[in-house]
Amino acid sequence: MGESGCGKSTLGRTLIRLEEPTSGKILYNGTDILSHDRKKLKWFRKEVQMIFQDPHSNLDPRLTVGESIGEALIIHEIGDCGSNVARLMEKVGLPPDFASRYPHELSGGQKQRIGIARALAVQPKLIIADEPVSALDISIQAQILNLLIDLQKEYGLTYIFIAHNLSVIRHIADRVAVMYLGKIVEQGTTDVIFSSPLHPYTRALLSAIPGKNTERLQLQGEVPSPINPPKGCRFHTRCPRRMKVCEELEPAVTGIKHTVACHLYK
């Protein structure tokens, strides 16, 4: 979780190699996927799928719903296309006759259900969900979240769930990673992060939750450019507890189950 523009979606797209990183490694089951050739990358994308943020732009308007879902089944040569499409549509709560419809005939919530069905089609182990409910009406968001939870239980899925809505995160996540300006500044279980945050940025985020019995922490200044981030701790230009060392050295990550990157916890 983190503010808009902090790099959450870029990280998600990079993990599945829709974006190429300028440096570093992406390890999946101990293997760097940046070294994968076309054949290995096809295998990887069968294991790892993505649900995109905008349901209105991620479906090809020229394809019917059935063709859109069936595309992945054909590419990965998975079973009978027609029967699998019908089964997947049932799993995401859509009637079979929707298979002949086009995207412009569907609502935002229905389109996102199609996006979920497409991700499920290749029987992945991991799904990267990039703010899958942020573009939907409030009345539809809970339905999609509950669908994702039900599917996770049924298929034993792991989600990397990208979001900035704190209520959504608390509802769906088991563990939380807090990102600021392209860096993970704190990680822990959802209960620990929401009840005992350590990093000043995490505390400021959580103080914005309506009804929370804590004083609202107002951050000063603007978020620096990710193209030219500050030296030292990237948060020091806005941190109410900054020290001289914060301006000079990037903090190391400390902790085991609950980790934080902050000079206050050396």
Structure description:
The protein has 266 residues and is α/β, with parallel strands linked by helices. The chain has 2 domains: 8-173, P-loop containing nucleotide triphosphate hydrolases (Rossmann fold, 3-Layer(aba) Sandwich); 176-261, no CATH class. It contains 9 helices and 9 strands. The chain has a 4-stranded antiparallel beta sheet. Strands 3-4-5 form a 3-stranded parallel beta sheet, sandwiched between helices. Helix 6 (138-155) links the parallel strand 4 (126-130) and strand 5 (158-162). Helix 3 packs across helix 4, helix 3 runs parallel beside helix 5 (108-120) and helix 5 (108-120) runs parallel beside helix 6. The model has no long low-confidence stretch (mean pLDDT 93).
Summarize this, please?
Helices cover 34% and strands 14% of the residues.
The number of domains:
2
Strand order of the largest sheet: 6-7-9-8
Q: What is the CATH T-level topology of the largest domain?
A: Rossmann fold
Tell me the overall shape. Answer: globular
Alpha-beta content class:
alpha/beta
Largest beta sheet, briefly? Answer: 4 strands, antiparallel
**What's the rounded overall pLDDT mean?**
93
